[in-house]
Amino acid sequence: MANVISTAKKIAVITALVEGCSVRSTVRMTGVSKGAVLRLLVSVGAACADYQDRTIRNVAAKRVQVDEIWSFVGCKEKNVTAAKLEAGACGDVWTFTAIEAQTKLVVSWMVGRRDAGCATEFLQDVQSRLSNRIQLTTDGHKMYLVAVPDAFAQDVDYAQLVKVYGSDPEGQKRYSPAQCLGTKRVDIIGTPDHDHISTSYVERQNLNMRMNMRRFTRLTNAFSKKIENHVAMIALFHMHYNFCRIHQTLRVTPAMEAGISQHAWSIHDIVALGPALMKAA
User: Fold this and answer.
1) Given a cut of 80, is residue 191 above it in pLDDT?
2) CA-CA distance, 155 to 189, in Å (whole number)?
3) pLDDT bracket for residue 166 (50, 70, 90)
4) CA geometry: angle 18, 70, 127, nearest 5 deg
């Protein structure tokens, strides 16, 4: 059982996971069984999600960037069958993230489908965590044209950064988009400042997710087998990113820069959230 693992072992397991190690490599390095690693991930991930949900509130943000990143659970969408769906959720999943450009705080994240329904639910959650009017930038995906007004009405300065792609004479590469020829800044709601219409920070955050969560690595067998484990790892990753990891340019954590935390958390602090959540329940 996970509760018989020593605190030192728990810290070693969580450290390996947030640094991008797979479950099996974590097992080999720490000597903790695969089942125990996954149980610890789910329990700590749930505690991280609960803590961030309660704590990241009333954020005084100025410029928020939103994007979504692809991954899959169990199998890719083209390989989904009725039998696989009966065994559990599977297929393509998208992780929406909203990052504040100045503090680099990930205000909210959500796992779901890449459609207007999930986008609306996600942006409504983002809006509920803010204390003031913001400037919002997304890419040119059409779902945001419905989701943003549904979440913010007219109380937002919203623009899209639309990328213009050229045609690839050799055919689009399997994991590479066509050549980007430029971008267009399109005002949608309010009066966004064109100097700050950008998705650079949230796209860099997508790279952080690919680099620091083994489940997001392409062309491997390290993908998530269960949606519960996938969501737990994303919650753990964002807890570590927001509260533990010193941002190179900020010299503090994003949570400290945003005034949510007074100190940089340690992995021990994250591990301790699990028992704290059980006591609160």
Assistant:
1) yes
2) 8
3) confident
4) 80
Residue 67: count other Cβ atoms within 10 Å of its Cβ: 21
Task: State the DSSP H helix or E strand holding residue 70, giving kind and residue range, or none if neither.
Answer: strand 63-73
Amino acid letter, 196: H
Per-residue DSSP letters for 34-84? Answer: HHHHHHHHHHHHHHHHHHHHHHS-SB--SEEEEEEEEEEESS-GGG--HHH
Q: How far apart are CA 274 and CA 42, in angstroms?
A: 10
What value does the mean pLDDT of the chain take? 92
If pLDDT is split at 50, 70 and 90, which confidence band does 1 have? Answer: very low
CA separation for the pair 69, 77 (Å, rounded)? 15
User: What is the DSSP code string of 84-127?
Assistant: HHHHS--EEEEEEEEEETTT--EEEEEEE-SSHHHHHHHHHHHH
Provide the token pair at 62.
């100025």
29 has a pLDDT exceeding 60: yes
